[in-house]
Design goal:
Helix 3 runs antiparallel to helix 5, helix 3 packs antiparallel against helix 8 and helix 5 runs antiparallel to helix 7. It is globular, with a radius of gyration of 20 Å. The strands form three sheets. A five-stranded antiparallel β-sheet has the order 3-4-2-1-10, with helices on one face. The chain has two domains: 85 residues, Phosphorylase Kinase, domain 1, CATH 3.30.200.20; 172 residues, Transferase(Phosphotransferase) domain 1 (Transferase(Phosphotransferase), domain 1), CATH 1.10.510.10. The chain is built from eight helices and ten strands. Its EC number is 2.7.11.1.
C-alpha cells in the first residue's frame, strides 16, 4: 500500500518511520480519496491501541495534499523473513511470539479495533526483544464507517477467517483465526489452507478440515482451538494467551479445550459438486523530517524492505487488496 521511509525528526531529534502512499497513475479521484482515507484510518486505529506490542504512531501530517503517517522506527526483522531464514520454529518459540501478538490483539479489541490482517509479514521481531504487530491498513474501528465496498474481500485469503470469506460480519474471533493460521505456519512451515488461486484458497478456508499439525507438540490444542470454523466455538482469547505463555515458558497446559471439530459450510455460488455433510463431531511530521533511506512497503525496519506487503519467498505471492 505504500513506502515507509526512515527519516530524522528535526524538531525532536530522533529517527522515525514515515509512511507514504502514492496513487497509481490513472486512478480515479474517488479511489485516490479512499486510499488516503484508509491511510488516515490506519493511523487512527493504531494510535487507539496503547500496548508495547503495537507500533506507536506519533503524528499524521499532510504535505502536497497527501497524508503521511509518522511512527516509531522499529529495528528488527519480520517474522516472515525469520521463517524464511531459519525455517519452522519450535513450539516453545512460536508460542512466545503468538502470546505477544495475542496481547496486542486483545488490547486492540478492547479499544474497538479489528486488525483483519494478522500474518507473519505484519509481525516484527524487534532487536530489543519486543514482538510488534504492525500495519493496521485494513483495520476497522468500532463506530466508524466502512471503507470496503459491498462484496469486496480484502486481506490475504490464506489467513482470512471463514466468516470473512463468506462475507459475514467479522468480530475479534476473526483475528484469533488468523493468529491460529500464523501459529500453524510458524511450526509446520506452510499455511494450512493455501491453494493455487485466491478462490480455491477461500473455498479451502470455508470447506476443508484443518490438516493435522505434526510439529506443533503442546501447541497443537491451541492451534486447533483457534481454527474452529464457527467463531463461537473458538478458544477464548484469555485462555489462548494463558496457554501460549505457559508453552512459551516450556510448560504444557492442561487445556480443557475439546478436540478440533471442523464445521464444513457450503461456499456460496454455483458448484459442480454438492457440499459435504457436516461431521457429527470432529480456528514527526513530514515537513520536519528529512528522508535518509527508503524501503518499499510498510512496516519499516532500519535495514531491510518492509514486509507488510512482502510475500514469504517459499510461497507464490500472496494476494493483496
Amino acid at each position: 500500500m505504500g513506502t515507509v521511509w526512515r527519516a530524522h525528526d528535526e524538531v525532536l531529534h530522533r529517527e522515525v518511520a514515515v509512511k507514504e502512499v502514492r496513487a497509481p497513475a490513472g486512478l480515479p479521484a474517488a479511489e485516490i480519496e479512499r486510499m488516503y482515507t484508509r491511510l488516515e484510518r490506519e493511523a487512527w486505529a493504531a494510535a487507539r491501541v496503547a500496548n508495547r506490542n503495537v507500533v506507536t504512531v506519533y503524528d499524521v501530517a499532510h504535505e502536497d495534499g497527501r497524508p503521511w503517517i509518522v511512527m516509531e522506527l522499529i529495528r528488527g526483522i519480520a517474522l516472515s523473513d525469520l521463517l524464511d531464514a531459519e525455517g519452522p520454529l519450535s513450539p516453545q518459540r512460536a508460542a512466545h511470539i503468538g502470546a505477544e501478538v495475542l496481547a496486542a490483539l486483545r488490547a486492540a479489541h478492547t479499544a474497538g479495533v479489528l486488525h483483519r490482517d494478522v500474518k507473519p509479514g505484519n509481525v516484527l521481531m524487534a532487536n530489543d526483544g519486543r514482538v510488534v504487530l504492525t500495519d493496521f491498513g485494513i483495520a476497522t474501528v468500532e463506530g466508524s464507517s466502512a471503507l470496503t465496498m459491498t462484496g469486496e474481500v480484502i486481506g490475504s485469503p490464506e489467513f482470512l477467517a471463514p466468516e470473512r470469506a463468506l462475507g459475514r460480519t467479522p468480530g475479534p474471533e476473526s483475528d484469533l483465526w488468523s493468529l491460529g493460521v500464523l501459529l500453524y505456519a510458524a511450526v509446520e512451515g506452510n499455511s494450512p489452507f493455501r491453494h493455487d488461486t485466491p478462490l480455491s484458497t477461500l473455498r479451502a478456508v470455508v470447506d476443508e478440515e484443518l490438516p493435522p499439525p505434526f510439529r506443533a507438540g503442546p501447541l497443537a490444542p491451541v492451534i486447533e482451538g483457534l481454527l474452529r470454523k464457527d467463531p463461537a466455538d473458538r478458544v477464548p482469547a484469555e485462555q489462548a494467551e494463558q496457554d501460549l505463555r505457559l508453552i512459551g515458558a516450556g510448560g504444557t497446559p492442561r487445556t480443557g479445550t475439546s478436540a478440533y471439530s471442523p464445521t464444513v459450510t457450503a461456499f456460496p455460488g454455483p458448484s459442480d459438486t454438492p457440499p459435504r455433510p457436516v461431521p457429527a463431531s470432529a480456528a514527526t511530521r513530514p515537513s520536519a523530517a528529512r528522508a535518509e533511506a527508503a524501503s518499499p512497503n510498510p512496516p519499516a525496519t532500519d535495514a531491510r524492505p518492509s514486509p507488510s506487503s512482502r510475500d514469504w519467498p517459499r510461497w507464490p505471492s500472496p494476494w493483496r487488496d
